[in-house]
């Protein structure tokens, strides 16, 4: 009998060392991915054992290895499960690393894999999950393992793909599991292998897809790869990273004698056994039925549902870290979304992490290490109570619009963190941006037998797809396309978009595939992740003049559609990865407008694209709403303060107006600020800013940037010198300050009011007419959508920051001053803010940005003033400060043709290229970096690095060092 987890767990022993869990190997059809062992690992003892499990005809021996840490005290345990086609050897390096960090680690080959006996049941609770419970019994009997109670080990389970599903099902069926970290795995094998992304969504999360009970479109290639691996002989399994040894014969070792006797008397049964290889008979029969018919029968569904966590998620109370890949045509983001919703529904802690990889493409080394740290932190906290609380937030790759063939240039290793997974467990529902797509009703031909078929991603071979240029092949006549207008601002899609179609078919049924393309201004197309959404439609209209409205959920992606690009919804009738109808047909496909009646096609519809506001978790702070109250109180006493200042500082007032004030909106002349204790915050600061410039005030913390801005706004008085705004002396109460908008030191928003009400209140306090506020433009800058009318206390730090910046822009001031405006903003929001500031300055206004982030100053500003220790140490354009403005260092991937790259660069106007000690260098004389990079990529040259040869950071460090 299984022991029950106690209500109160023992406090971790003070002497226990901090632990970290490894990111598991996840099995791909072409092999498995493992992490290298840590350098300088301490000695770890291992014990090999054959562990019996099951009884009767289902009895097996599991090949196990126990890793024992170099410690005298009992320690928590971790069970590492391998991916499909792997074995205990696949996770050996990870186990050694964990043991070196203080965990007792148990690895094993699942039944039917490696040298374990038995047959594959696809994580059947009666077999594979029962095996896991047997292994927990084994751990509970070891004196090296810390216990929660008699027979109850302190244990976590982690695994990728096949091993990830085992972790989920194990936590559901055995209450002794204390924490799990499943990766790139499934929610429902039925909806994974027979998907149909049609119907209304029943959830407010970003990647929810319809979990239809009806039959979907059979994922033919992926299912074939699975069955091929499980049926393979030992030699093929060895090649795939699986196993070999005693359990790899054509008739698996450990096959019950009674079954062998029956097959000897029944040649057909013997043939079935040979065909099924290492699979259990019911699994094999289910596959053969699906492969021959392409349909989901009740018998097939029963086998798949039994091995799916979907029906038992409400039993899981072990804290769960769900890791899913954005490049995964086998188990998409919707599978993790459904798992997160099901587990969190009963209050179990759930954290969701997406990464740029998956079954179709391995992650980069940086991403792999980050995921390894994520799993480590999860087990440290939930098994030992050590380290930082990982929380229950949401992380995803920073959206990028560049294709996968560019590699690490695209910044895929950068992540964005949000406080919560939208729509999960009481969190705010997902927000969606509406993008209008348009196009006429179009005929779509499906060929007899489904040939030729469109080519998107080759399942499991994303690297091959990238090597071919990441291109897709759509067959003319077999698709309908609907485009947006060129985007006026970037759209960052984080999750699964939705759109309504109007479809008719002569037979009343149709098989379609919906995709969301990124179309560049030059017509080049990118299919993010190579992902498609299958649509199995039945009972639809046969009359093209009265089509059926169909709600479609597009693939879950993380992608940035850049300004000037087009979002294209493409609906095709074929895809080579899926089973297709034999009969030829012509479908009618159009758009169903939000305002059109049901069954009526329209020329346009709304594509609802999910967006997520991320924030830098390390930059969390308080809203400090009392700042606004203090400002409002100060406004009420403004006359008294101005009068007092006027009387006490009359001798310092300069009344003349400088004649060039309109051309020089801001001028500092010999400004010094010293305090009574002798500290000099700013010393003899002089610089000027001209109309239309975006000037960056750059310096390390303590350089005097904020003090300078506070003097500019009249919040504090300079000890000496003059500050001029549009030629007028700036100071407390100076009328010229009405032409200045500022955001310095905190958002100053009232938490109980909405974002809109905060903006209205702020403008009312200025006493200026409401029509002068340009409220709509400011709200557009905030970019919060419907959230602008929610209370600020429900905002993330980044949302508050955006409202505060919009507040500074009320009235469209001629001089805009922003202090650290990107604090709390995620990378997409930072990029959008850059665009806003550039456009603002292009109107002839002037922008001052103070920051210690060199990369932001370099990308945002046209001019720079560098400060250190209260003094100006340099001033000029970014190019002047950097000193090597047009020089770019180009790093090529291994094997790339350097001579060809030089020839491509030399063929571009204003570009010269050649070799240098630090690599290939391109000199850009007026050419845009983006155009040069695009030319290399279009020529099929793999670029791994494309950076200025000397960055602002280099110049800044040199200048600060000199000062």
TrEMBL record:
The chain crosses the membrane at residues 625-643. The keyword DNA-binding does not apply. One of its GO terms (molecular function) is hydrolase activity. Residues 1-41 form the signal peptide. Keywords: ATP-binding, Hydrolase, Membrane, Nucleotide-binding, Signal, Transmembrane, Transmembrane helix, Transport. Residues 666-894 form the ABC transporter domain. Coiled coil: none annotated. The keyword Protein transport does not apply. Pfam families: ABC_tran (PF00005), Peptidase_S15 (PF02129), PepX_C (PF08530). InterPro entries: AAA+_ATPase (IPR003593), AB_hydrolase_fold (IPR029058), ABC_transporter-like_ATP-bd (IPR003439), ABC_transporter-like_CS (IPR017871), Galactose-bd-like_sf (IPR008979), P-loop_NTPase (IPR027417), Xaa-Pro-like_dom (IPR000383), Xaa-Pro_dipept_C (IPR013736). It comes from the Bacteria. Belongs to the ABC transporter superfamily. This is Alpha/beta fold hydrolase. It comes from Blastococcus carthaginiensis.
């Amino acid at each position: 009998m299984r022991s029950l987890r106690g209500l109160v767990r023992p406090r971790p022993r003070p002497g226990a060392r901090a632990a970290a869990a490894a990111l598991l190997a996840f099995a791909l059809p072409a092999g498995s991915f493992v992490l290298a062992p840590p350098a300088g690992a301490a000695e770890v003892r291992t014990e090999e054992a054959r562990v019996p499990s099951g009884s009767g005809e289902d009895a097996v021996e599991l090949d196990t290895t126990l890793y024992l840490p170099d410690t005298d005290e009992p320690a928590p345990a971790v069970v590492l499960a391998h991916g499909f086609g792997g074995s205990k050897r696949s996770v050996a390096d990870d186990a050694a690393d964990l043991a070196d960090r203080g965990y007792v680690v148990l690895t094993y080959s699942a039944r039917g894999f490696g040298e374990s006996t038995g047959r594959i049941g696809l994580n059947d609770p009666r077999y594979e999950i029962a095996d896991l419970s047997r292994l927990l019994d084994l751990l509970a009997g070891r004196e090296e393992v810390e216990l929660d109670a008699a027979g109850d080990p302190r244990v976590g389970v982690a695994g990728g793909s096949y091993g990830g599903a085992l972790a989920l099902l194990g936590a559901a069926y055995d209450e002794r599991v204390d924490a799990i970290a499943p990766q790139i795995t499934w929610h429902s094998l039925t909806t994974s292998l027979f998907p149909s992304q049609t119907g209304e969504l029943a959830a407010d999360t970003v990647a929810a897809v319809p979990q239809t009970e009806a039959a979907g479109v059979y994922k033919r290639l992926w299912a074939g790869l699975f069955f091929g691996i499980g049926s393979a002989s030992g030699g093929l399994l060895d090649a795939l990273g699986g196993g070999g040894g005693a359990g790899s014969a054509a008739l698996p070792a450990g096959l019950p004698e009674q079954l062998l006797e029956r097959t000897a008397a029944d040649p057909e049964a013997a043939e079935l056994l040979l065909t099924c290889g290492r699979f259990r008979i019911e699994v094999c029969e289910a596959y053969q039925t699906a492969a021959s018919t392409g349909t989901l029968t009740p018998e097939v569904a029963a086998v798949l549902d039994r091995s799916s966590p979907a029906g038992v998620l409400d039993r899981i109370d072990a804290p769960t870290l769900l890791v899913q890949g954005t490049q995964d045509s086998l188990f998409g983001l919707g599978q993790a979304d459904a798992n997160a919703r099901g587990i969190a529904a009963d209050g179990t802690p759930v954290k969701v992490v997406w990464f740029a990889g998956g079954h179709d493409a391995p992650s980069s080394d940086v991403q792999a290490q980050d995921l390894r740290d994520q799993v480590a932190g999860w087990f440290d906290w939930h098994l030992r109570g050590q380290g930082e609380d990982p929380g229950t937030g949401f992380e995803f790759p920073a959206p990028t619009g560049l294709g996968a063939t560019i590699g690490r240039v695209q910044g895929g290793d950068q992540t964005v963190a949000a406080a919560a997974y939208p729509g999960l467990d009481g969190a705010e529902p997902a927000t969606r941006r509406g993008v209008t797509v348009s196009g006429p009703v179009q005929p779509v031909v499906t060929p007899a037998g489904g040939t030729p078929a469109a080519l998107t991603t080759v399942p499991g071979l994303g690297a091959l797809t990238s090597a071919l240029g990441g291109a897709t092949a759509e067959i003319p006549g077999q698709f309908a396309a609907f485009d947006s207008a060129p985007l006026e601002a970037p759209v960052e899609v984080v999750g699964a978009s939705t759109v309504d179609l109007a479809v008719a078919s002569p037979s009343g049924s149709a098989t379609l595939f919906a995709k969301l393309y990124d179309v560049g201004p030059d017509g080049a197309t990118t299919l993010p992740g190579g992902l498609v959404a299958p649509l199995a439609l039945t009972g639809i209209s046969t009359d093209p003049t009265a089509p059926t409205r169909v709600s479609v959920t597009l693939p879950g992606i993380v992608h940035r559609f850049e300004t000037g690009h087009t979002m294209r919804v493409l609906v095709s009738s074929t895809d080579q990865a899926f089973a297709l109808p034999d009969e030829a047909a012509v479908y009618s496909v159009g758009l169903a407008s939000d305002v059109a009646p049901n069954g009526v096609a329209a020329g346009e519809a709304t594509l609802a694209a999910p967006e997520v506001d991320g924030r830098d978790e390390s930059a969390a702070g308080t809203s400090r709403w009392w700042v606004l109250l203090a400002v409002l109180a100060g406004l009420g006493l403004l006359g008294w303060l101005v009068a007092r200042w006027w009387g006490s500082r009359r001798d310092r007032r300069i009344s003349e107006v400088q004649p060039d004030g309109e051309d020089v909106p801001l001028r500092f002349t010999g400004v010094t600020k010293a305090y009574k204790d002798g500290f000099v915050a700013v010393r003899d600061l002089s610089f000027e800013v001209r109309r239309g410039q975006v000037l960056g005030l750059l310096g390390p913390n303590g350089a005097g940037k904020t003090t300078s801005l506070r003097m500019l706004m009249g919040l504090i008085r300079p000890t000496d010198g003059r500050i001029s705004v549009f030629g007028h002396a700036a100071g407390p109460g100076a009328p010229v300050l009405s032409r200045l908008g500022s955001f310095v030191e905190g958002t100053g928003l009232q938490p109980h009011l909405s974002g809109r009400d905060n903006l209205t209140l702020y403008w009312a306090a200025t006493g200026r007419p409401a029509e002068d506020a340009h409220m709509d433009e400011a709200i557009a800058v905030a970019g919060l959508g419907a959230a602008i009318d929610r209370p600020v206390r429900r905002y993330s730090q980044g949302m508050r920051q955006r409202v505060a910046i919009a507040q500074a822009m009320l009235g469209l001031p001629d001089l805009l001053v922003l202090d650290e405006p990107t604090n709390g903003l995620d990378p997409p929001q930072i990029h959008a803010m850059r665009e806003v500031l550039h456009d603002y300055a292009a109107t002839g206004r002037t922008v001052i940005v103070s920051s210690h982030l060199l990369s932001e100053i370099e990308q945002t500003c046209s001019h720079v003033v560098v400060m250190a220790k209260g003094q100006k140490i340099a001033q000029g354009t970014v190019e002047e400060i950097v000193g090597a403005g047009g020089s770019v260092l180009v790093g090529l991937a291994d094997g790339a043709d350097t001579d060809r790259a030089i020839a491509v660069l030399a063929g571009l106007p204003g570009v010269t290229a050649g070799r240098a000690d630090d690599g290939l260098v391109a000199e850009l004389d007026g050419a845009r970096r983006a155009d040069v990079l695009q030319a290399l990529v279009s020529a099929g040259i793999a670029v791994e690095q494309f950076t200025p040869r000397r960055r602002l950071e280099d110049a800044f460090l040199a200048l600060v060092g000199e000062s």
